[in-house]
Amino acid sequence: MESLLTTPFLTALLAGSLAAGLPLLLAGLGEQMSEKAGVLNIGLEGMMLLGAYCGFLGAWSSGSLWLGFLCGMLGGLALALPMMLLCVWLGLNQIVVGIALTLSAEGLTALLHHVQFSQSYPRLPRVDTLPLPLLSEIPVLGTALFDRHPLVYLAILAVPLLAWLYRSSLLGLNLQAAGDRPAALDAAGISVIATRSLAVLFTGAMAGLGGAYLATVGAGLFVPFMTSGAGFIAIVLAMLGRGRPLWVLLGALLFGLCLSLTTALQVAGLRVPTDLVQMLPFAAVMLLLLFFGRRAALPAALTRPYRRGER
Amino acid sequence: MTDIPQIVGRLLQALLPLLLALACGALLLLLLERDPVSFYATIIERGLLSRLGLQESLTRSAPLLLLAAGLIVAFRAGLWNLGVDGQFLLAAVITAALAPGLAATLPPWLALPLAMLAAFAVAALWAALPAFLKARYGVNEIITTLMMTFLGISLANLLIKLPFNDPATTSPQTLTLATADRLPRLLGSTVHLGLVIALLALLLVHWAMTRTALGLRLRILGANPLTARHVGLPVTGLTFLAFGLSAGLAGLAGAVEILGVWGTVRADWNPAYGMLVIPLVFLARFHGGAVIFFVFVFAVLSIGGETAARRADLPNYFLLVLVALILVFLALTEWLSARPLMRKRG
Amino acid sequence: MSAQHQGKAPPLIRFEQVTKRYPGVLANDAITLDLHAGEIHALLGENGAGKSTLIALLSGMQQPDAGRLLIDGQAVRFSSPRAALQAGIGTVYQHSALVPSLTVLENLMLGRRWWQGRRQSATRRRFTALCNDLGVRLPADALLSSLSLGERQMVEIVKALWEGRRLLILDEASAMLTSAAVSDLQRSLTRLAAKGMAILFVTHKLPEALAFGDRVSILRAGRLVASRSAADLHRRGAEQAQSEIISLMFDAPSTATAAPAPPPSFQEKAPVLRVQGLRAACGEQEPQLDGIDFSLSAGEILGVAGIDGNGQRQLAEALAGQRTTLAGRIELGGEAVQAKSVPQRMKRGLRYLTDDRLGEGSLPAFPISLNLLLKRVGDAPFWRQGVEQPREIEAYAQQTISAHNIRAPGPHTPLGSLSGGNVQKLLLARELEGQPRVVIYNKPTYGLDFQTQQLAQEAIRRQAASGVAALLISPDLDEILALSHRVAVMAEGRIVGIVNNGPDARQTVGRLVVGGTA
C-alpha cells in the first residue's frame, strides 16, 4: 500500500477529481436552483452539451477562453428558454420536454459539428493555469488544487455564494417558497412564474458553463455526445443535495474522485476496473436511500406546474 | 369508443406533430444547403421500399417494441421508469453470458426461452429497489431509476470485462452465440423471430392494459392514487408488479437484440434505445397500435436516415433532431387541444 | 375587557346595508355593522351563515352588490385585496399562507421585492415589537414546520399586523388550537385591542365568542340577527345569554317554508355497526380522531353534525378502511373489521359515499361505465377470468343510467363531462348497489342543485326504510334534523354528544356544535 501514497499518485488523483468534478459541480448547482423552485429540469444533459459545443466554438473562433465560456452559457440559455416557455409558462410535462430538449441538443450539436469540421477534431491550445501565489507551492495539494484554471476557483466560490443566496437573501426565500408552497408565494404578491423562470434560466446558463468547461479546459476539443450522461448525474447530485450547495460540491468531488481514481491507480501501477469504481457513489447513494429513505424529501411542488387557485 | 370521426381526429392529432417536425427538418436541411426532397426520398426508398432496408427496419423495430411495451405498463400506472436503458443492457449481458452455455447443453426450443426468461427476471429484479423505495417511502422513482441505470450500465460492463469475458478476443466482450443457435429467421429473410415476439408482447400488453381487470387496476393507480386508495386497491403490490413487468419487458428487449442480432455484447456498447422510445410512447399516447406505427416509422427513419445522411454528407444524428421536434410539437398540440377543456371547467 | 368605545366617535369601519348575492344565494342581506377601534367584535354563525362573504367584502376579495363600506365615516370601495391592505385591514385566513420549510422570520420577509433586501435586523426588531404587543414569545429562527399549530397561528397574526394595521380579522382562528393556545390567543388579542386596534373575531364557538368579545353579533342565513354588547350579556347571566344566542343561531325560522318533519322516532334493535374507542392515524394538520364510540341499528340514520373539518372526514375514512385503526374496535354485524381492508369491508356491506366526488370518488377522464364499476374491478359478470366483458359492462351502465335517471349521452361518455348532480346520482347508484348494510354518506347533497338534493335525501330515506343503517355526515343542520333518528356532534376529532332527534334537538345540537354542554 505504501507505493500508493506517492506524490504523483495523489497529485493525479486530486487534480483529476477536481477536473472531472467541475462540470458536474456547475451543472449540479444550476439544477439545484430549478429543483428548489419546483421545476425538474431533465433537459440538463442537453444544456450541457449545447454549452460544450457553443463554448468550444466560441473559444476556438475567438481565441479567448472567456468568450468561450460566455458562448457556452448562452448556449445553455438557448435551450433553457424553450424549457421555461413550455414547462413554466404553459405547464407542459417537464419530463417529456426535458427528454426532447436533450435529444435535440444531441442531434443538433453532432450535426453542426459535422457540417463545420466534417469529422476532424480541431484542438484548442493547452490552457494556462493560474497558480495562486504561495498556496500552489504546497507539495501535492499545491499543484493539485491551487494551480488550476481561474474558472475552477470561481466555480468553488459559487458554492458559498449560492449558499448565502439561499439562506440569506429574499430571492432565496422566493425560490424556496415557489418549490414548497407556491400558493403562499403568490398570496404574498410575488409571481411564481417569474421566480421559476429565473431559476430555469440560471440552470441553463450554469449547465452551459459546465459543458463549456468540459470542452475547452477539460478536453480541449468538442466530440459529439461528449457529456455522456454527466447531465443526468448532475440531476441526481442536485436532488441528493436537497437544497444545499455544499452537498453538491462534495458529491461532484466524490464522483470526480471515482472517475479519476482509475487513472490514478494506473499511474500507481494498479489495475482496478473503472466500472467498479464508478459504481461506488451510486451504490452508496442507493444504500443510503434504502436505510434513510424516509428523509429523501424533495420540494412539495416539484414537477407540478403552478396554476392559481389549484391546491 | 370506436366511432370514426374520433379515430380520425386522434390520428390527425398524432400525425400533426410528425408532419410539422418533418417540415422543420426540411427547413434545417435547406439551411445546411442540402436538398430535403431527395433526403426524405432516400429515407423512404432505403428504409422502406428496398428489400434489405425494409428487413433492417423490421429487425430494428423488435427491441424498440419491447421497450415500448414495458414503458406503456409503467406510464399507464403513473410510474416514471426512466431506467429502461440500464435494465436493457444488464439483461443483454446476462443473456449473452448464458446463451452459449444453454445452447450447448439444451435443445434450442428450450435454450432460447430459458435465456429470455433469465433476462426478464434479472431486469425485473433490477427494478425491485426503486419499486420498494417508491411504495414504502414514496421516494421519487425518476431519481432512483436514473441511478439504477448508471449502476446497471457499469455493472454490465464490469461483468463483460471480468467474469463473462471471452479470453479469445482482444477487446473485452462476452462469448459469442453461434449464428445457428440464434433466434430463427422468418421466411428466408434476415428478420428474426424476435419481431414476432415483440409484436405479440406489445399487443398482449395493450390488450391487458385496456381489456383486463389487472390493467384497469394499474390505470386507476396511474390516474389518481387517491382514487386507488378509496376503492381499496393494493397499491404496494401494484407498484411492484408494474415496475417488475416494465423492467422485465425492457430486459426481454435486450435478450431479443442479443439472441437475434449480435450474439454477444462488447464492453461499452449501449444503444440507449430507451431515451428514444420514451418520446415515441408519449407520441402514441400509450396506445399499443399507435406505438407499433410510430416505432416502425422511427425504425424506417433511422435505417433510411443512415444512408440518406451518408449521401448528403451529414451525420445520422439528424434523426435525433427530428424526434425532438416531433416531441415539442406533440407537447404543443396537446396543450392546444387541452385548453378548451380547461376553459369549460374553469 | 371592558368595552372602551363610548359610542360617540365614528366607528372605524361601518357596514351600511351591505348586500352580496351569489347565483341562487343571498350571502349577505342588508347587513349593518359597526367595528370600533379598541374593541374585539365576535361574529358568530353556523356553516353558510354568510361569515366568509363578510370577510371577503372587508378584505377586498369581493365587492358588495348594494350598500356601502365606510372607514372613519368616509365611503370606500376596495377593488382588490391590496386596496384593503392599504386601508389597514389585515386578515388571518383559515388556510395557512405560510411556507413550512422557511423560518418564522423568513416567512415574514416573504413578499418583499428582492431588491429591497432582507433588512435582517430591522425585521427582527419589528418582530420583537409585535411579539411584545401580542405578549407572546416566538422563536424567530426556527423552521415554521417545527412550531405548534398555536404558534403558527401567532405567526400568521404577526404577519397580518406587519404593516401596521387598524383592523385585524381572524377567520376561525381557534379552530385547530388547544385550549391553552386559545387562552394565549385571547390574551394577545385583548392586548392588541387595548392598544386601539379593532378586531373582528369570526368563529362558530359560542364560549369563545362570549369570552373574547366586547360585542357579539350573530349572522344567520345572510342576515345580522342580533348584536349584543358583552356588558349586556353579562348582566343577564351566562346561562341565559347562551340560550338566547343559541336560539338566535339555530332556531327554525317561524316563517320557514314547510321544513320536512323529522322521521318517526326509531326503535332500538341489535346494532349492525358498533364502534368502540376508535382512534385512527391522522396527519399533523388534521383533527386527531380519538375515543369514538357509537352504534347503529338496522334502518337507523345517525346524523353527524358539527362544523366542517372537525374530524368528520377522518371518521368516515377510518370506518371505510382508508385509514389505519390505531386503537379500538369496529364491529360490522358482530364481526370485528378494524383490521380488514377496504374491499373486505365493502364485501361485508359497508359503503362509503365520499364528499370529494371528482378528486377521490371517481376518475373524470374515464367513461361512466367503468366509473360505475370502480369498486368492483375484476368481479363477475363484468370480468371473467380477469377479462373485461364489454357487453355486460355496457348493459349494466345503460341500465343504471336509465334506472337512476342520469343525464348522459351514453355509457362511454367520460364522467368529467357530466354535471355535478348527475355525477352524484351515479356515485349514489354505485354505492347503493347490491345489499348494503351500512352506508356512510359524506355531504351527500353538498353543492348540488335543489332537485338532486331532494333525490339524494329521498334515496337515503328509502334505504333506511328498507333496513340499511346510515351515517349521515352533513354541514347542513336542517338536512340532518330532517333525516336522522339521532344526531352525533363532532368537535376536534371527538364525538361530544349524541342527541335523539325531536322537538328540542335543534337547541341541544346547536349548543353542542358551538361548544356548550348538552
UniProtKB/TrEMBL annotation, chain A:
Record bears the keyword Cell inner membrane: no
Pfam family, one: BPD_transp_2
UniProt keyword terms in alphabetical order: Cell membrane, Membrane, Transmembrane, Transmembrane helix
Residue stretches spanning the membrane: 6-27, 39-60, 66-88, 95-115, 150-166, 187-215, 221-240, 247-268, 280-302
Acetylation keyword on record: no
Membrane topology: Multi-pass membrane protein
Places the protein is found: Cell membrane
PANTHER family: ABC TRANSPORTER PERMEASE PROTEIN (PTHR43370:SF2), SUGAR ABC TRANSPORTER INTEGRAL MEMBRANE PROTEIN-RELATED (PTHR43370)
Entry protein name: ABC transporter permease
Organism of this sequence: Aquibaculum arenosum
Automatic annotation (TrEMBL), chain B:
Domain of life, source organism: Bacteria
Main location: membrane
Pfam families: BPD_transp_2
Cell membrane in keyword set: yes
Membrane-spanning ranges: 58-76, 88-106, 112-133, 142-160, 191-210, 231-256, 276-305, 317-338
Protein's recorded name: ABC transporter permease
UniProt-annotated location(s): Cell membrane
Keywords associated with the record: Cell membrane, Membrane, Transmembrane, Transmembrane helix
InterPro entries for this protein: ABC_transp_permease
Membrane-protein topology: Multi-pass membrane protein
Automatic annotation (TrEMBL), chain C:
PROSITE patterns, sorted: ABC_TRANSPORTER_1, ABC_TRANSPORTER_2
Pfam families noted in UniProt: ABC_tran
Annotated ranges, domain ABC transporter: 13-246, 273-517
InterPro entries: AAA+_ATPase, ABC_carbohydrate_import_ATPase, ABC_transporter-like_ATP-bd, ABC_transporter-like_CS, P-loop_NTPase
GO molecular function terms attached to this record: ATP binding
Superkingdom assignment: Bacteria
ATP-binding found in the keyword field: yes
Keywords carried by this UniProt record: ATP-binding, Nucleotide-binding
PANTHER family: CARBOHYDRATE TRANSPORT ATP-BINDING PROTEIN MG119-RELATED (PTHR43790), GUANOSINE IMPORT ATP-BINDING PROTEIN NUPO (PTHR43790:SF4)
UniProt-recorded name of the protein: ABC transporter ATP-binding protein
Natural source organism: Aquibaculum arenosum
